[in-house]
Amino acid sequence: MWFYVLAFFAVDVLGVMLLQWSVTTVEPFMGFLNWVNLIFTSARFVFVLNVIILGVFYLAVIALVNRFWVATPVFIFIVTVISVVERMKVMVRHETILPSDVKMAGSNAGNLSEFIPAGSQGLFVKIPLFLLVFTLLCVLIARRDGRARLVTVKNRGVHIVARILLVLAPMGFLVAYAASLGTVGTWAYNASEFLGDAPRLWDSVEDAQGNGTLIGFLRFTNPKVMDMPKGYSEATMKKIAARYEKEADSINEDRSSEMTDSSVIMILSESYSDPTRVPGLTLNKDPMPTIRSIKKSTTSGLMLSSGYGGGTANLEFQAITGLSMANFDASLSSPYQQLVPKMKWTPTFNQFWNQSASGSLAFHPYHASMYSRATNYKKFGIARFWTLDKPDVIAHQDHIDNSPYVSDASAYQSVLEKITNKSRDNKFYQVVTMQNHMSYDNWYKDNEFEASSTTGSALGPDENQQINTYSKGMSYTDKSTKAFLDHLDKIDKPITVIFYGDHLPGIYASASQDSDNSIALHETDYFIWSNKASTSRGHKLSAQDSAYTSPNFLMAQTAQHMDAKVSPYLAFLTEMHEAISAMEPPVANHIQQWQRIPSGTSLNLDADGDQIEKLSTQQKQLVNDYKLIQYDITAGKNYLKDLDFMELPNETAVDGGSYTATESTSDAGSKAAKKTTDSKESSDSSDSSDSSKE
Questions:
Q1: Model confidence, pTM
Q2: Which CATH architecture has domain 234-693?
Q3: Which pLDDT score, from 0 to 100, does residue 592 have?
Q4: Do the beta carbons of residue 564 and residue 557 sit within 8 Å?
Q5: Which residue ranges make up each domain of the chain?
C-alpha cells in the first residue's frame, strides 16, 4: 500500500514538474526548485496546491482505468502532451494556453505548425523517447507487482457503481474547484489564496510561473462576469434600444459631422499624471508646461482611474468599449484575460472605422502578448498591431539614457509614419506607450527635478528618487507630445487625438498613508485635441461636460467635441456622463492587487469632482440601464446586436466593420485585417522600414 502512495506522489510531482517546465524557458529545473522553495522563503504553498489539484486528476485517471501501472503512463502522456504544446505557445507568443484556445483547437488544427518555435525539433525526439522509457518502466514494475486491478468486487453491479463513484468523485471536485476558483469569496478562491495563490493576471506566463501552470489555467475557466440584472429579457433590451435610438435622433439633429470624417488617435500614455497635484508634494519645476497649456485650449480635465500603480489594460478596455469596471463582479479583475476570449460579440469603437479598407491600427512599443493584446486586438477588428515582436515590429525603438523602455518620441514617430502616407482614408489608431512604466530607477542623466514634502515629514530616499525620475519622464512626454501634435497640424486631413493617462505610478508612499487622498491618487490627466484640418479645431467642451470623466465616457465626449453624430450606445453614454461625470469601482490607497479593492458600491463623481453620496431617480435609472446593456454585451444573449444599437446613423453594416462583429473567434477582425492587407498602399514605404528592423 505504501509503495502505491509513494509512487503516486512521485508521479504527481513529476507531472507538476512537466507543467512548470512548459512555462519556464530559462533554466527550468532551477526555476522549479525556486518555486518549491517559496514554501520556506515566503510561506507560499502554491507547489502543494498544484500537487493536490493535479493529484485529483491523476486519481480520476486511475479510477477510470482501474490499473495503476496502466493509468500512470496514460496520465504522464496526457500531461506531457499538454506541457509540450504549452511550452511551444509560450516560446512563440509568451502566452499560456487559455480555455479559449481549447475551444478553437479543432477549427485551427491545420495551423498548429505556426506554433512550433525554431530550434525545437529536438523535442520531437526527446519527448517520445522519454514517454517510451517511462512506459517500459511502468510495464516492468507492473509485472513484478502482479496486482491486476485496484478495485475488485465480485458483485458486478456493485463493482460498476463503485467504479463510477470513484471516477465521479475526483472529477466532480475538479469541476467544482474550476467553477469557483475565478470568483472572489468562494471556497476554491479562499482555499487557494490561503495556500499562497496570488493572481498575476497582467501576464499569463508570469502567473503560471508564480502560481502554477495548472492553477493559472483553471482560474480562467469560469470567472464570474456580473450578476444578471433584474428584468433582463429580449423585450427589455428592445425597450432600451428604442429609448436611446430616440435620444440619438435628438442629439443628431444638432450635429453636423460624422465620426468617421476624421481619423482618431487614442493614446493611452503609460502612468501619465500631474505629480504636482499629489497631496503633500511639491516640485522645483513644472514637468508638463506644454500639456498644461494644451489642456487650457481644448477639451480636457481629470479622469478617474480604477488603478493605482497598475491596471493599464482595464482602463484601455473601458476606453475602447465604453463599458465600465464598476458594473462587473469583483471577480472580473482583468477583462482582457478573463472576459474577452469568451465573448461572442466584441463591439469596440474602433470598428466604426472598419467600414473603409484602412480599418484600425495599433501600436505598443512592448511585447504583443502583454494582457493578450495581440489576440484581443484581432477580435476587436484591429487589422495590424506593431510591437517589439514579429511579425509587425515597431519601426522606432530608441530609449532615453538608461531607461529600459522605448521612448514616447519613438512611439509617436512610428505612428506618424503610418499617418503621413498617401492614403486619404480615415483610420482609428490605438496607441499604448511604455516610456513611463515602473520602476523608476534613476534612469535619466542631468535630472533637474527635485521633489520635496509639504507636510513637515521628509520623503524617504527611495520615494524621492522615484518621483524625481518619474517627473523627468513626464517632462520628456510633455515635449514629445507637443512635437507629435505639431506634426499632426501639418497634415492636410482631419485628425482628432484622445490623450489620457491610465493611472498614477505606485510611488507616492507618503501620500498613500492618508486615506483622504484616495480620490486624488486615482485622478489622471486627459485631453481631446483636433488638428488644423479639423472643423473641431480649438473646440473646448464646457466644464460641466469635461472637468471630470472616466475612460468609458471618452469616446462619447470625443463625438461631442467633434460635433459628430452618435449611435444609440454613444447617446446613452452621453446621457450617462451628463448625469454622473465619472464612475469607477471603489478605489484604494495602495498598489492594486489585481482584484477589486475594497469591495462595495461604485465611486461616482459629479461635474465638480465631488462624490455623489446618493443617486437620484434619474441616475438610478441610467445605472440600471447601463448594467443591462453591459450584461447583454458581455454575459447575456446579445439581443442588442441585431437592434442597430451600436450603429452610427446612415451606416450599412459590412463584414468586419462597424459594430456588427458576431464571430466568436473574431472572424470580423480577421476579415478587417485581410481587407487592410489586400488594399494596403504600395506607397507606404514605412512598412519596409518595419521589416528592416526585424
A1: 0.77
A2: 3-Layer(aba) Sandwich (3.40)
A3: 41
A4: no
A5: 2-218, 234-693
